[in-house]
Amino acid sequence: MALLTDLINLDLTDATEKIIAEYIWIGGSGMDLRSKARTLPGPVTDPSKLPKWNYDGSSTGQAPGEDSEVILYPQAIFKDPFRKGNNILVMCDCYTPAGEPIPTNKRFNAAKIFSNPDVAAEEPWYGIEQEYTLLQKDINWPLGWPVGGFPGPQGPYYCGIGADKSFGRDIVDSHYKACLFAGVNISGINGEVMPGQWEFQVGPTVGIAAGDQVWVARYILERITEIAGVVVTFDPKPIPGDWNGAGAHTNYSTESMRKDGGFKVIVEAVEKLKLKHKEHIAAYGEGNERRLTGKHETADINTFSWGVANRGASVRVGRETEQNGKGYFEDRRPASNMDPYVVTSMIAETTIMWKP
């Protein structure tokens, strides 16, 4: 008799041409990922060849009950690490039946910015450091922490190894491999300063692909934690007090910054970010004021600062970039729950399109 695991792992390729496509979208809170699956007649590699689909927006906080249909437009395809074979994950964005982007569709505006000729000519590269915290199910307390109590103070956990310092590595490593399998340009992982907290990096990616890939990497992580019976939170400060928060540091460069003499372009871009500090902070994630306190490797939320190799600044320029006279910089302000479509496009808009 077949076991459940045998059936879950059934390879369909010998039995049928048909494939399963899991359509993924962002729900009404702006952080809740939703997905559902459909059968397609055969393998697909081009998102424009995929059918549009719809869902009940009144059940996701995105449409009223009397006019609840929201249309999914497929935008990016990834290999499905859960079903394997020719099956796919499809990142979608959301529209009304009349073809208007719904208010929570942040990809639409980002794609407009990235297709601006000035932005496209600069080929903006992004590397996003996504931090997150693993929680014990039902009690919402970090993995590896004693129930109702606290572990020893921070220090031994960052990039730590051993059963008393590293909690959830099986989840992290499964996620790493699943992302590589899917075609997400995940470039690394590490344990973070607070026990139970981890980070993965996505990049370098160009333009709108940065947002697509971070969202799909988050989706894969949520699916793996579901299997493991663990909860993942992207809250920027899951535990108050003397514990590090969680961010999504965004590394950024343009063609002009990567060329000789690029350091001057970096300084000009950072000065523009300083002038728009308030607008950026407002769009960089909810609850960020609990994280950006000026402590725990952060800059104070109300003050813009930048420096070379300074992890307590709003924007950090690497020592190597300074020495080479070209390279990239790191915006350290985005919270772990930021929308990568918003953050990546806003940085491009401010540094390339905006002429103060």
Automatic annotation (TrEMBL):
Keyword match Membrane:
no
Using the record's annotation, list all stretches that form the GS catalytic domain: 106-356
UniProt name for this protein:
Glutamine synthetase
Q: Where is this region: Disordered?
A: 37-66
Q: What is its EC number?
A: 6.3.1.2
- Which key words tag this protein in UniProt? ATP-binding, Cytoplasm, Ligase, Nucleotide-binding
Record localization: Cytoplasm
From which domain of life does this come? Eukaryota
Predominant location of this chain? cytoplasm
InterPro entries tied to this protein: Gln_synt_N, Gln_synt_N_sf, Gln_synth/guanido_kin_cat_dom, Gln_synth_cat_dom, Gln_synth_gly_rich_site, Gln_synth_N_conserv_site, Glutamine_Synthetase
* GO process annotations (BP): glutamine biosynthetic process
Chain segments annotated as coiled-coil in the UniProt record: none
Known Pfam families for this protein? Gln-synt_C (PF00120), Gln-synt_N (PF03951)
Domain (GS beta-grasp) ranges: 19-99
Q: Which GO terms describe its molecular function?
A: ATP binding; glutamine synthetase activity
Of which family is this protein a member? Belongs to the glutamine synthetase family.
Task: Tell me which GO cellular component terms the UniProt record holds.
Answer: cytoplasm
Note whether tRNA processing occurs among the keywords.
no
Query: What is catalysed by this protein?
Result: L-glutamate + NH4(+) + ATP = L-glutamine + ADP + phosphate + H(+)
